[in-house]
Write a structure and sequence with these properties.
There is one protein chain. The chain is an alpha+beta fold and 159 residues long. The protein folds into 2 domains: 56 residues, no CATH class; 78 residues. Helix content is 54%, strand content 16%. The protein has 3 helices and 3 strands; from the N terminus they run H-E-E-E-H-H. A 3-stranded antiparallel beta sheet has the order 2-1-3. Strand 1 and strand 2 form a beta hairpin. The longest helix is centred in the middle third of the chain and has 38 residues.
């Protein structure tokens, strides 16, 4: 961990100074503790070995940034009337979809009621009845969720 910190510190120093010879030492003091350094003066009086020696050249970042492209003058602009008519069309479409979904929901509920009232001879076990009815229940649930979603979307359209 110390070595990684030392390398990042050395890289920052190299950026500030351009081209530089970087030497990193690993040193042991009299008590046996290890120190990692890139400063020559920190190595005096310790048993040191070179861990890494590298020449680093850092180029400065370019100062001129490319200009953002401006929209051409003939680029179409949307006015408030166009926005209002687009919202009106969107509302009409959503209302039409909501009406269709409500019709399908009513049909799915009728189908479920019909199937619940019918009992076939091979369905002595109630689990078989539930298994047969599950696809009708799923259809009702799907259309209910769609109706809720469309209502929510209509509500959010004019916020």
């Amino acid at each position: 961990m110390l070595l990684g910190f030392a390398l990042s510190a050395v890289a920052a120093l190299a950026q500030a100074q351009g081209t530089q010879e970087i030497t990193i030492w690993s040193c042991r003091d009299k008590d046996g503790r290890t120190h990692v350094t890139n400063l020559r003066e920190d190595t005096s009086g310790m048993d040191c070995r070179i861990v890494q020696q590298t020449r680093v050249q850092v180029m400065p970042a370019p100062t001129n940034k490319p200009a953002a492209k401006a929209a051409p003058g003939s680029f179409p602009k949307e006015d408030s009337e166009a926005r209002a008519s687009a919202r009106e069309r969107q509302r009409e479409i959503l209302e039409r979809e909501l009406e269709q979904e409500q019709t399908q929901l009513e049909r799915a509920r009728r189908d479920l009621e019909e199937q619940e009232s019918v009992r076939y001879g091979d369905e002595r076990n109630y689990a078989k009845v539930l298994e047969r009815l599950q696809k009708y229940k799923d259809a009702v649930e799907l259309h209910q969720k769609n109706v809720e979603s469309l209502r929510r979307e209509l509500t959010n359209l004019f916020r």
